[in-house]
Recover the amino acids of this structure.
């Protein structure tokens, strides 16, 4: 299986729902259309058919937001372990089609680090996806650094993915327009603002100086940060002229994916800022359909070598596939 031009296709931000985890979702976290829920819960025939129809060889499966990030630790720790065990069974049933990112109980960072290690060493997972903030706290807070220390030691990436913004943010920034444009607070803009802010905070926190081997993945072509990186860097240097370059730290420690952002100009900007070796293909299925993403990669004006890197080569290297 491959695209029309012959490349293998690995998609690394492709979501599912664990039925036990999703029972704990409340409010806006439950606001999903029935057709989306059907696909999120399917780990078999429907998912594989849509992969095959688009020419996607492998999905790296990650739990939909907010996973266990908003669940108290006493529930989240055993729930995460059980969910990862269930995902392991799914991957084992189709090891040529599926790999996994772990779900982590971030309300207990030590337990989350231990579960990351178990998921990588015992289950063969390729890293973890976390959906911030975690119970209202941004993920750069030093309480979460044990997770990053363990990820560095294991040499696996942490994928930082959006979740529905905190209610206070929604009320302040988006409420006036939500009746007519309900996605303004989520995938149209709110997700980008929240996750880009998290990426900036990670760089400023000092976590990369403490853990120089840490690797972070952002979706949606970097949540707009590659476009803004020069201005961010220049502005921060006005505050502290001797600071380590934001631009250098970001481009050294972050990888980005194409999930749900199939734009030629945006892609070219990302390549110019970060280099093609830092960009990995993903769709954001089922919130975005497979076909547009694959078809875009087939027609975009890039060399075959660069397409191969984005479609599968970079994922194989980063995730040791």
């Amino acid at each position: 299986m491959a695209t029309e031009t012959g490349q293998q296709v690995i998609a690394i931000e492709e979501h599912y729902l664990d039925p036990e985890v999703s029972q704990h979702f409340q409010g806006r976290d439950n606001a999903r259309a029935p057709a989306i829920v059907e696909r999120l819960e399917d780990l078999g025939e429907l998912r594989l058919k849509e992969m095959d129809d688009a020419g996607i060889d492998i999905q790296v499966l990650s739990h939909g937001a907010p996973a266990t990030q908003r669940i108290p630790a006493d529930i989240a720790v055993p729930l995460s372990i059980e969910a990862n065990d269930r995902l392991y069974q799914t991957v084992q049933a189709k090891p040529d089609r599926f790999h996994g990112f772990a779900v982590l109980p971030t309300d207990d960072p030590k337990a989350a680090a231990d579960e990351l290690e178990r998921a990588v060493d015992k289950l063969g997972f390729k890293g973890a996806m976390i959906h911030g903030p975690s119970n209202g706290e941004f993920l750069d807070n030093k309480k979460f650094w044990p997770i990053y220390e363990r990820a560095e030691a294991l040499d696996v990436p942490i994928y930082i993915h959006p979740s529905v913004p905190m209610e206070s943010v929604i009320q302040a920034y988006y409420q006036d327009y939500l009746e007519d444009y309900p996605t303004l607070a989520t995938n149209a803009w709110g997700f980008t603002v929240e996750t880009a802010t998290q990426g900036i905070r990670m760089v400023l926190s000092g976590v990369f100086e403490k853990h120089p081997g840490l690797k972070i993945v952002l979706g949606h072509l970097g949540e707009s940060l590659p476009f803004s990186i020069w201005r961010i860097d220049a502005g921060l240097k006005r505050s502290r002229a001797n600071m380590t370059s934001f631009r250098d730290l970001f481009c050294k420690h972050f990888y980005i994916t194409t999930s749900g952002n199939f734009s030629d100009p945006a892609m070219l900007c990302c390549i110019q800022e970060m280099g093609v070796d830092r960009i990995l293909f993903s769709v954001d299925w089922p919130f975005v359909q497979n076909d547009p993403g694959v078809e875009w990669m087939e027609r975009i004006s890039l060399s075959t070598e660069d397409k191969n890197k984005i479609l599968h080569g970079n994922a194989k290297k980063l995730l040791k596939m």
User: Anything to note?
Assistant: Residues 10-319 form a domain with the TIM Barrel fold (CATH 3.20.20.140). The mean pLDDT is 95. The chain is about 50% helix and 10% strand.
